[in-house]
Amino acid sequence: MKVIMKNGLVKDFKFEEKEGKNAFRHTASHVLAQAVKRLYPTTKCAIGPMIEDGFYYDFEFDFEFTAANLVEIEQEMRKIVKESLSLQRYTLNREEALALMKEKNEPYKIELINDLPEDAQLSFYQQGDYAELCAGPHVTNTSLIKAFKLTATAGAYWRGNEKNKMLTRIYGTAFPKSSELEVYLQSIEEAKKRDHRKLGKELGLFTILDEGPGFPFFLPKGMILKNLLIDYWRKLHTREGYVEISTPMMLNKELWETSGHWDHYRENMYTTVIDDTDFAIKPMNCPGGMLVYKLQPHSYRELPIRMGELGLVHRHEKSGALHGLMRVRCFTQDDAHIFMTQEQITDEIKGVVRLIDEVYSKFGFKYHVELSTRPENSIGSDEDWNVATEGLKKALDEMQLEYVINEGDGAFYGPKIDFHLEDSIGRTWQCGTIQLDFQLPVRFEAEYIGADGKKHRPIMIHRVVFGSIERFIGILIEHYAGKFPLWLAPVQVKVLPISDKFAEYGASVMAELQKQGIRCEIDNRDEKIGYKIREAQLGKVPYMIVVGQKEVDNKLVTIRRRDENAQESYSIQEFVQLLNNEIEGF
User: Fold this and answer.
1) Which residue in 416, 456, 463, 540 is the catalytic one?
2) Within a 13 Å sphere around the CA of 203, how many CA atoms are in the beta-carbon half?
């Protein structure tokens, strides 16, 4: 697949390669815009980037857009693909570009051009009767866009600013082959069935109410799930030598100025005033962790100090970006901060990598690793950044762990390792991260006494395993399609009496299971047993116990597994042992 690069040179790429996929889908967005302009010439075009699974384009229509319009546009796109239009790149100076966009009545393009330097040479890509202001890259011909689908529409504020005009965003995806598109569309349908917002409501796990957009409410069963994850987290971290702290949710502005967040993250922070002093609700836990470290002097003999915190943080997310538990305004971050000497960097990084690998393996996730380097908006010396980056590389190389370099995507205070896990239907999620930080210890004047009796700066690791516990729960809901493994299921067993006559025996069975630490419920409704079984299956309960006359007479329980129709009978003790074996074996 030939691609016209941003400099106008043509190179060969495969669709599987990032550059090839981006160029392919960016061209598909231009085909979409061309189709829209052919059908509705007065429409104004905004932006049309590629995204992870496809592309989108934002438009201002002067009529009410409907599903019928989407069908028309897709049909017109097919015509454009069949026309086999070559793409040509050319450049204009700022004055020429502005004149062209004024002639075409494209105010959003004019605004974009006005934001660029006056001496900028602006690139355009022409395909047939359509020319688009764009940096590229693009494939060389529209005929390459063989398989595509417009998937959804949504409202989107221009430039993400709620004060700007609401535009219509059209989403789509594109592949070189129809078979690849078909597989993708099937995965989308499967993803809809697994949507954590839908399943979270059906299973009684969480809700988000109008009174608190972006602020999740966890319901009783959801709290069981959340606490099970927290208990597991605490058990692992105690084993690995971490201590746990809890820092205040709100701290004064001076702290955030010292940490650098006030200058680099201010727009995402909630603020208030107390006694004429500015305060911020914490978006991160690390500055509070620094204060705890500084409460007493430290010796090199104490290092590394591994300090964990399950801290509730708040971040100002735009309403259009909110999405169930995946993007919220408050969440519990399973932070830890490790204070260490420079000589301990490699071993500590390895320890965190092993911990993350253990956790993801337990849940059945595969993952890949990215090493992100210094961004433009950053603090600290080149020397510190080089040492930090090489420290991360060394740890990964010594563990023989494959990784890719993600240039310029590090945190503002240091490089990082990101873990992108893959769920059961092939989607990837960025959760775990390890960030190496030379800067905060300097800014907070943190110290330890070295073997030479002199004061030294510790080096700091910021790391999370789950990332956001709320988001991780959302991922788990979709990964398991709500069918949690037995150890994690909020309700492990449901007792189903065949009739009221057997309710007393059913209650005694439930009481014995609960005594043995099994999370159990009983369905005593006056309904047929088939209905009760179906309801329990809809609730994704791992085990159902059916009790009737045979069970009462023989002091047995008859069980059905969640996804099986076969029935087996056990004594209560045998059944408890079966459950414990399954829990311990996971």
Assistant:
1) 416
2) 31
